[in-house]
Amino acid sequence: MCAKATMEEFEALLAESLEIDTPQEGSVVKGRVIAIEAGQAIIDVGYKMEGRVDLKEFADLGGSADISVGDEVEVYLDRVENARGEAQISRDKAKREEAWDRLEKAYANETRVEGAIFGRVKGGFTVDLGGAVAFLPGSQVDVRPVRDAGPLMGLKQPFQILKMDRRRGNIVVSRRAILEESRAEQRAEVIGNLSEGQTVDGVVKNITEYGAFVDLGGVDGLLHVTDMAWRRVNHPSEILSIGETVKVQVIKINKETHRISLGMKQLQSDPWDSVENSYPLGSVHKGRVTNITDYGAFVELEAGVEGLVHVSEMSWTKKNVHPGKIVSTSQEVDVMVLEIDSAKRRVSLGLKQTMRNPWEVFAETHPVGTAIEGEVKNITEFGLFVGLENDIDGMVHLSDLSWDQRGEDAIQNYRKGDTVQAAVTEVDIEKERISLSIKALGDDTFTDAVDGVKRGSIITVAVTAIEEGGVEVDYNGMKSFIRRSDLSRDRADQRPERFQVGDKVDVRVTNVDSKTRRLGLSIKAREIAEEKEAVEQYGSSDSGASLGDILGAALKGDRN
C-alpha cells in the first residue's frame, strides 16, 4: 500500500516536472546558436531540444543576417518535435509576436512607430514595422498626391497607427498624419512670426486659375488673382511662374484655419488715388479695349484703371448691335470721361462722344428745304425710311409722299432699295429725327388751282360726269363732287340728269380743305346767297312785292 502510494506520488511529481520544464507550443522561448550550416542556424532551445532557422529570418529588411555561434536569440516554438525529431521554431514569428506587443502599446498610447516601406500593393504600400507588416494607403503617404514613391522605399521613418486587429493580423498606418502634425507645428511657428501688413519673400509653389500658392517658409499663403496687380489679370501665369521668388504683403491671417491671404498690388501705389485729377470729366484719352460683354466694352486707361463704355455710348447710329461689332479686344480707341465714382472704382466712358453728332452735322450741311437723294431702307405703315450720309435715316411720312394721291395709295409706288429724292422739312437733333418730303419737290397742283379761291367765292366749273348721287365737276384741273342735295334750292330740280357733261355751272365754294385737297361746292348755296342779296337790295317780300318781282328787278339791274 505504501509502495503504491509512493509510485503515484513519483508519477505526479514527474508529470508536474515535465509540464514545468517543457515549453508550451505557440510561445516565444530563448535559445542559443550552437552552429551555422547550410544557410541555417541551429539553435538549442533547452529541454534537450534543437531546431533550425533560415539565416534570412535574422536579417533586417534589405540587409544581411547578423548572427554568430553563441548568440542568444528568441524564437517562436511551433512544435516540440517535427518529423525529424527536431523542434520546429521560427525567428520571424518571434519577432512578429514581439512587434505586436510593442505596436499594441504604441497604438494604445497613440505614439509613433518606426518602419520602412518595402513594397507596393493595390491601393497603397506595405510597411515593415520591425517584424509586423502594415498597410499604408496611398492617400496616407503624403499631404499631397505622390507620383513617385521610389525615394521613400526602404527609408526608416515614423508612422502613426490608424487601426490594428491582431486576430486578423491587420495594421493600417499613416505617414501623412506625421507630416501634417509636423507641418501644423511648423505652420503655427511661422504664422506666429507673421503679422497682417508685413512684407515677406515667398516662392511660388502652385498656380491655379484663381491665384497662386506661395511658400513662406513652411506655410503656404494664397495670392488671389485680383491681388496680383491693379490692372486686369486674366490668368496668374501672365505675371508669375512656379519656382519664382516674389515679394508679397500679408493681407489677412486666419488664426483658426491657419489660412493666409497675400497681395502683391498692395506694395504698389493705388492708381485710383489720382484718377479724378488725371481724368477730368469731359476729357478725351486713348485706351485699350480689354474685355467685351453684351452690355459694353471695358477700356484700360492705364495699368489698374479701367472704364466701361456702355453699349448706349458706343455709336450714334448703331443702336441694336453687339459691342463686338463696333470694337475688338486689344484695339486702341479714343474715349471721353463721362462719370467717375472713386468709391466704387468705376469710370463711365463714351466712345461716340469723341465723334460729332451726325444729326448736328446734317443740320449744318442740310438746312430745311435742301434737296437730298437716298435709298429706301425700310417701308412701314406710316411712311418711308430713307438712308442718308453718316449712317442716319430720314423719314417721309405718308402725307408727304404725293400732292394728288392718298398716302396709303402713294406708298404702293415705292419698293425697298429704290432711290428717291426729297426735301428736308425738319431736323430734330435731340430726338435724332429727320423729316423729309417727296411731294415738296413737285408742284402743288391743288394750291395752284385754288389760288385766290376762298370760302364763299363764286366760281364756274365744268360738268365731267353724271352720277346718281350728284355730279362730278372740274375746276382748273381739280376734281370735285356736288352732291344731289346741293344741285338746286328747289327739291324738284335736285336731279343730276338735268345736267350734261360739258355744262358750265356757277357754284358757291363752301369749303377749301388743303389736307384732303378737296373743294366743297354747292349750286344750292349759290342760289340762296343770290336770293338773299336780291332781297336786301331790291326790297322785302313783306312789302307786297313777290319773289319773282324782286328777282326780275335784280336781273334787270344786272343787265343795266
From TrEMBL:
Leader sequence range is none
Q: Does the keyword Cytoplasm apply?
A: no
Q: Which Gene3D superfamilies match?
A: Nucleic acid-binding proteins
A single Gene Ontology MF term assigned here is: mRNA binding
A Pfam cross-reference name: S1
* Keywords noted in UniProt: Repeat, Ribonucleoprotein, Ribosomal protein, RNA-binding
CC annotations in GO:
cytosolic small ribosomal subunit
Transport as a keyword of this entry, yes or no, is no
GO terms of biological process kind? translation
| Domain S1 motif per the UniProt entry, residue ranges | 26-92, 110-176, 197-265, 282-352, 369-439, 456-524
Member of which family?
Belongs to the bacterial ribosomal protein bS1 family.
Q: Which NCBIfam families match?
A: PRK06299.1-2, PRK06299.1-5, rpsA
State what this protein does: Binds mRNA; thus facilitating recognition of the initiation point. It is needed to translate mRNA with a short Shine-Dalgarno (SD) purine-rich sequence.
State the name under which the record lists this protein. Answer: 30S ribosomal protein S1
Q: Which organism is it from?
A: Szabonella alba
**High-level lineage:** Bacteria, Pseudomonadati, Pseudomonadota, Alphaproteobacteria, Rhodobacterales
